[in-house]
Write a structure and sequence with these properties.
294 residues; mainly beta; 5-stranded antiparallel sheet; 2 helices; 31 strands; 4% helix
């Protein structure tokens, strides 16, 4: 069970209670009565007030104070992080933001006279954080900070439920699975892959349509191939020179028929299967000579 937070001068609710806070003063009522349940004044300005099951939580400057309605007394006092701001209650915890982190505080321990558990999680892009509905988490910079799930979608509101992350933006609701998933696509009449080399640099186009060059086991994306890049061939998944020496392992051979070779390429989290024709010599002889290795 969680309560609601209160902007100064506006009510906070937790049935059957509601409360007002203004300046250093507060008043608590029941919705079925005009009489005050309790009222009073604190020594400092009340920045926010929250209600929970039978008690109130006051946020002061770097302090958290709890008040029990039945006992009619203050039950707890605890310091807050110096950069704690924008507090709200969700998932049974008091949550808020610091300069570069998300805070989640077990305020119920304070009401019981104990010290609160204060969890903090580093976060990026704190300016675009939104609360995660029904959870003690925040969505900052495309990432659910506490859950450690990256979605990357812009969100006015966000939630995690039943194995999905939910994102509401401009009236559109998007659900993403938190489990690994696969998209199956068939490419027809796609541009042929291109391969070339310039000195020790081996270059190629990949299935994402981008150009890459590899040298000394370092691969970089390129805007274009070098002017002196000499065309090369792909044989049995390997980029080879004119003497059929292997320049680069590009794909893995997984199967073959009388006329074609089936190859597998893994790139940027994707798995691609493609077919290439055998050479006339391989087709006639029924053999598959492997390229030479330096």
């Amino acid at each position: 069970m969680t309560g609601t937070n209160n902007k100064p001068g506006k009510p906070a609710f937790y049935p059957p209670y509601f409360a007002f806070a203004e300046g250093r003063s507060f008043r608590v009522y029941r919705i079925d009565s005009n009489d005050e349940v309790i009222s009073g004044q604190l020594k400092e300005t009340i920045r926010d007030v929250f209600l929970d099951d039978g008690f109130a939580v006051f946020i002061l400057d770097e302090k958290l104070v709890t008040l029990d309605f039945a006992q009619r007394r203050f039950t707890g006092l605890s310091p807050l992080p110096v950069d704690f701001s924008s507090p709200y209650i969700a998932g049974g915890r008091l949550n808020g933001y610091g300069r570069d982190r998300f805070y989640s505080i077990n305020y119920q321990d304070v009401n019981r006279g104990g010290a609160p558990e204060i969890l903090d999680f580093p976060a990026d892009n704190m300016t675009d954080c939104v609360a995660v509905s029904g959870s003690a988490d925040a969505y900052c910079g495309g990432r659910f900070v506490r859950a450690g799930i990256y979605s990357g979608l812009p969100s006015e509101k966000a939630a995690v439920a039943d194995g999905f992350t939910l994102h509401l933006e401009d009236g559109a609701l998007t659900a993403l699975s938190t489990e690994d998933s696969f998209n199956k696509e068939i490419f027809i009449n796609r541009d042929e892959l291109k391969f070339c080399s310039a000195g020790r640099r081996v270059c190629y186009t990949d299935f994402d349509g981008r150009k890459y060059c590899t040298e000394n086991n370092v691969t970089l994306e390129m805007k274009g191939f070098p002017d002196n890049c000499v065309p090369k061939e792909l044989r049995h998944g390997k980029i080879v020179d004119n003497e059929e020496n292997v320049l680069l392992d590009f794909a893995e051979e997984v199967n073959s028929s009388a006329n074609h070779i089936m190859l597998k390429r893994e790139h940027e989290g994707g798995v691609y299967y493609f077919f290439m024709p055998k050479t006339p010599e391989e087709t006639e002889q029924g053999t598959e000579p492997a390229p030479a290795v330096n």
